[in-house]
Design goal:
elongated; 198 residues; two-stranded antiparallel ribbon; alpha+beta
């Protein structure tokens, strides 16, 4: 039954969207998407940085436990920042450091040293050129960021004695996120963006 004052539509009773209405809806969707994408990028960066910082904190705990047992932090005699013998020292394999240096360590000390890395995920361990190193599981996250020239390997750098922490050690990792280098280090609580590698 037809209501008074109602105009019949040309297509059988249903009014269609006009081109202007469609363009307005598309414009609004575009505006919302433009606001959301930067937020998503920021959240992803925050997630990557926090993951790397948590992994660095695990390594710092292992280093403090090592020092408590041996009286010093693991040495880095070759000053090899990209692949230091840190993993070998903290898991009890020794090498160039205290465990196999002829000091008064025993088999029990080496067994105890293996527990220093008990909480480290297998994603944080990589082998490069025959050397096992500690890496971040974040790995970059930019696919073309390869600090050691090998895909999916982003090492923690270690220096003892430290330059920024002269009475201790320097520990840091860099992440390449959205074309920016993010330095996560133990001498600053702030993530440093596009800072030169120490």
């Amino acid at each position: 039954m037809k209501k008074i004052g109602q105009q019949p539509s040309k297509n059988g009773g249903h009014r269609a969207f006009t081109l202007v209405e469609m363009l307005i809806v598309i414009f609004i969707i575009g505006m919302v998407a433009g606001l959301i994408f930067p937020v998503v990028k920021s959240v992803k960066r925050w997630q990557y940085v926090n993951t790397a910082r948590a992994e660095m904190n695990q390594i710092q705990t292992a280093l403090e436990n090592y020092k408590a047992q041996y009286g010093a932090y693991p040495p880095n005699p070759a000053n090899n920042l990209l692949s230091p013998p840190l993993y070998a020292e903290l898991c009890g394999q020794g090498g160039a450091g205290i465990i196999n240096s002829g000091s008064t360590t025993t088999t029990e000390d080496q067994t105890a040293a293996k527990n220093f890395l008990a909480g480290i995920s297998s994603k944080q361990i990589a082998t490069v050129g025959g050397t096992t190193i500690l890496v971040t599981s974040v790995r970059g996250p930019d696919a073309n960021y390869q600090p050691l020239g090998q895909a999916n390997v982003n090492p923690f750098r270690y220096r003892y004695p430290g330059t920024y922490n002269p009475t201790g050690y320097d520990l840091w990792v860099q992440l390449s996120i959205n074309g920016q280098l993010n330095l996560i280090c133990n001498w600053s609580r702030q993530t440093q963006v596009n800072t030169a590698d120490p």
